[in-house]
Amino acid sequence: MDLDTSGIIGQSTSLRDVFRILAKVAPTDSTVLVTGESGTGKELLVRALHSNSQRRSMPFVPINCGAIPKELLESELFGHEKGAFTHAIRSRPGRFELADGGTIFLDEIGEMDLTLQVKILRVLQEKEIERVGGAGVKKVDVRIVAATNRDLEREVAAGRFREDLYYRLNVIPLHLPALRERGGDILVLAEHFMRRFCERKGRRCLTLAPDTRKVLAAYSWPGNVRELENFMERLSILADDDVVPPADLPRKILDEVGDIVSLPEPTPPDPLPVAAGAASGGVPAGFSWPTITDLRDKGMNLKDFLDTVEERLLDEALTMAEGVKNQAAEILGIKRTTLIEKLKKKRSDS
Ligand SMILES: Nc1ncnc2c1ncn2[C@@H]1O[C@H](COP(=O)(O)OP(=O)(O)OP(=O)(O)O)[C@@H](O)[C@H]1O
Ligand SMILES: [Mg+2]
């Protein structure tokens, strides 16, 4: 089965390493622990994990363990019986039961308190749950995927996270590198977001001046992809001209990078892997001719498939052309008007 990483943009070696593990682990039922700084795309990755798994047609149930008050979290996860506590006027299934057959995503697991950690451990070991105030246990068939931006080993050392649970969760660790460690992906993502926001707002695609590109590539992006995404949205609204000069960037970013003249040229994006046969007109790596079984597996019909292929190539051409439509059309060997029509159609579909 080919890996579907749609929506996760980037071609850096460090991200491709993540995709490689993802491709191996997705079809299994193993527990996965995703780590990475805030905004690195952990949730996006977990969703890709589920949609590439055998469980893809079954529920995907996320729960943010850090956002729910701890008194409520247990009944959210495991459900409760009528009368279990003051406001339990009727019985309710928890997220584990709702996820039966599918995947539960325990987001921000590092925030969960120790008493609840024991109960999660039990689900992992016994594959059964007990509702709050319930009289017995129920079997559930759920794949558990957890994520955290905390250093769980440190949490274990500090006595805030159970060591046994840590090992149980960390069967397959998937670490998302910080954006600043992804080299050329910073600008690939910046241009992708810029194009998306401009298309959404129906304004001409903005381009980044060479010095602006240098600054964005040199900045440390502590909020990672989320920060870059929000920042591009802001630029797409506030920029006055079609070419964004460094002066349009906020003080915070300019102050951090210092003197623009002494900044290095941005790292170019890592080249996409090409199979041995490709040079002689073969098929690129990661590409295999789809069969009807593949389409059925993905729940796609012919049109869905062709649309996906077209969208990916349009995106790639626009990135190569830095958003210049004439050039992108030329790369694709189609007329500029045809390209614009396709983009318009794409926008109205999304
Ligand atoms: N590689 C990527 N390509 C495209 N969009 C991305 C990528 N990585 C992250 N994003 C976008 O960035 C935002 C943050 O991603 P996400 O919520 O998955 O991060 P997170 O690691 O779960 O963050 P947090 O720890 O704060 O919960 C989302 O809008 C997501 O769509
Ligand atoms: Mg998240």
Care to describe what's here?
It is built from 15 helices and 11 strands. By secondary structure, the protein is α/β, with parallel strands linked by helices. The protein has 3 domains: 13-177, Rossmann fold (3-Layer(aba) Sandwich); 179-271, Helicase, Ruva Protein, domain 3 (Orthogonal Bundle), CATH 1.10.8.60; 289-350, Arc Repressor Mutant, subunit A (Orthogonal Bundle), CATH 1.10.10. Mean pLDDT is 89; it is low at 275-286. Adenosine-5'-triphosphate (ATP) binds at residues 8-10, 36, 38-44, 149, 189, 225-226, 229.
In short:
Helix content is about 45%, strand content about 10%. The protein has about 350 residues and is of the alpha/beta class. Residues about 275-285 have low confidence and may be disordered.
Q: Topology of this structure?
A:
Elements: H1 13-25, E1 32-35, H2 42-51, E2 60-64, H3 70-78, E3 79-80, E4 92-93, H4 95-98, E5 103-107, H5 114-126, E6 128-130, E7 137-139, E8 143-148, H6 152-157, H7 163-169, E9 172-175, H8 185-201, E10 207-208, H9 210-218, H10 224-238, E11 243-244, H11 251-257, H12 292-297, H13 302-320, H14 325-332, H15 336-349
Parallel strand pairs: 1-8, 1-9, 2-5, 5-8, 10-11
Antiparallel strand pairs: 3-4, 6-7
Pfam families: AAA_lid_14, HTH_8, Sigma54_activat
Protein name: Sigma-54 dependent transcriptional regulator
Domain Sigma-54 factor interaction: 8-237
Strand content: 5-15%
Give the oligomer, counting copies of the same chain as homo and different chains as hetero. Answer: single chain
Distance between the termini: 26 Å
The low-confidence runs, each spanning 5 or more residues with pLDDT under 50, are 275-286
Number of domains as seen in the coordinates: 3
The average pLDDT is 89
**Which percent bin holds the helix content?**
40-55%
Query: What is the CATH homology-level superfamily of the largest domain?
Result: P-loop containing nucleotide triphosphate hydrolases
**Overall 3D shape:** globular
- Compounds present? adenosine-5'-triphosphate, magnesium ion
In sequence order, what are the helices and strands, one letter per element? HEHEHEEHEHEEEHHEHEHHEHHHHH
Q: Largest sheet, order of strands side by side?
A: 2-5-8-1-9
Please tell me how large the radius of gyration is. 23 Å
Q: For this structure, what is the CATH class of the largest domain? A: Alpha Beta
User: Strand pairing plus helix content: what structural class?
Assistant: alpha/beta
* Sheet having the most strands: 5 strands, parallel
Q: Which fold name is given in CATH as the topology of the largest domain?
A: Rossmann fold
- Please tally the β strands and state the result: 11
Total helical elements: 15
